[in-house]
Design brief:
Shape: globular
Distance between the termini: 27 Å
Structural class: mainly alpha
Largest sheet: none
Radius of gyration: 19 Å
Mean pLDDT: 82
Length: 223
């Protein structure tokens, strides 16, 4: 049974979306963990198929563990793309720029670093993560502007833990519109989130779809 969040917990949920930079050692450890979980799931799938009386007729429903593993695999593939497109020195600089942005998004240095990322490393995965982080922690119309840019230009980026930039940006933007008393815009964003990112997770391996009904219920009460 889905747990119901309070309105306060729902609005503060965005502050639990903690991103992080990963070293090569941490990345390798993540790969090993994902590989291990993937093998378990493949074996479980094979067991279910072998025990099925009518193979191919039973609808396969993914459990949460399968979804989480798949999202982490997607993240690993996206991060690996950067390793092919950028030299090690460039990747180190990108991570440094992102870490400084994450440390204090309101500082002039952070905004300058964001400009560096967009001008020099527009196609880097961390550039999308940076725009989400700045949008998440900004206030007022500036928050919406950064989140929209994250959605329109960096939706395919991922944090190493499997959380996708586009999905999180949709959810946080829907929260913002709800708080700002813009129910039409909020519902539109939620509809796109459900359609385009049905299996998205947050930074703590929770399905974003679990939180959507609470936000929709809040919208119903405010309209």
């Amino acid at each position: 049974m889905r747990k119901t969040l309070s309105s306060l917990a729902l609005f503060t949920l965005l502050f639990s979306f903690n991103s992080f930079a990963v070293s090569d050692a941490e990345f390798q450890a993540l790969q090993q963990r994902v590989d291990f979980l993937e093998k378990i799931i493949l074996r479980q799938n094979e067991d279910r198929l072998n025990s099925s009386a009518s193979p191919g007729t039973e609808t396969e429903v993914k459990n949460n563990e399968q979804i989480v593993v798949e999202q982490k695999l997607n993240a690993r593939e996206r991060i690996a793309l950067d390793r092919r497109n950028y030299a090690p020195a460039e990747l180190s600089k990108i991570e440094l720029l992102f870490a400084e942005i994450e440390r204090d998004v309101d500082s002039p240095a952070a905004r300058n670093n964001l400009k560096t990322l967009i001008h020099q490393y527009r196609n880097a995965n961390r550039t999308g993560c940076a725009f989400l982080k700045v949008g998440q922690l900004s206030r007022g119309p500036e928050r919406a502007a950064y989140l929209k840019k994250a959605i329109n230009e960096f939706s395919d980026c991922y944090f190493a833990n499997g959380a996708q930039v586009g999905a999180l940006a949709h959810f946080i933007l829907a929260q913002y519109y709800t708080i700002d008393n813009k129910p039409v815009e909020a519902r539109d964003i939620l509809a796109r989130l459900k359609k385009n990112f049905p299996e998205a997770i947050d930074h703590n391996d929770r399905l974003l779809s679990e939180f959507i009904p609470d936000l929709e219920a809040l919208l119903n009460r405010t309209e």
